[in-house]
Amino acid sequence: MLLAILSLCSSPQSSSGQLLPASRENLCVTEGALEESPGDGLFVTVPKMRAYLNAPTPQLVEVRFTYFGATTNEAPLGSGEIRRQFGLKLRAQDPCNLVYAMWRIEPESKLVVSVKSNPGQHTSAECGNRGYRNIKPLRSAPVPALHSGDPHALRAEIHGAEMRVFADSALVWQGSIGPEALAFDGPVGIRSDNARLQLKLLTAQPLRIPPGKAPGCRLSLAESE
Fold this sequence. Notes:
Blueprint: H1 2-10, E1 20-22, E2 27-31, E3 35-37, E4 41-44, E5 48-53, E6 60-70, E7 84-94, E8 97-106, E9 110-116, H2 124-127, E10 132-134, E11 139-140, E12 151-159, E13 162-167, E14 170-176, E15 189-193, E16 195-203
Antiparallel strand pairs: 1-16, 2-5, 3-4, 4-16, 5-15, 6-12, 6-16, 7-8, 7-15, 8-9, 9-10, 11-14, 12-13, 13-14
């Protein structure tokens, strides 16, 4: 019984607190397009989509989504690889300095956490697809296989240097993102490559922006990778 109690106490749980939906008007789309659907829902039908929340929140974000297969056209990454994936951005200072939690779909199904760090560089023209480092987790688990039409959820949170990622409420990645990721900061966001999706984005706290006062997109955050 003691072992069972210790196991429950040591099992990581996602942070408590109400998550609230972010609508299309709360997002700055820096590449591709997001189409609105009822109930604060969003559609992705383009090969590349990048967006960030235009208000500060704690580094806690969740997306509830349904995957509908590949986009009609596909676009390669900067490396030339064709990859189908969808994920979350955290501490997104700009296209050159941010943290990714990506649910890779094809050619291999897995959850990858990456830090993209390029000190002194702030635009895609400066850094391109350089500066990526995949972070090795302290503990991990496989993500579910994605099948067209099935609903799923992806959640990521950062506390200090510790990051945890949950897929369908199960912990799939836990580890330290390291000091280089703490050298920059910024909003949370989303990214997709070659995947058709219907999604709902939820953030950690209310968006307290008066109507018509939401900050515009910063051109420095326009990105291609």
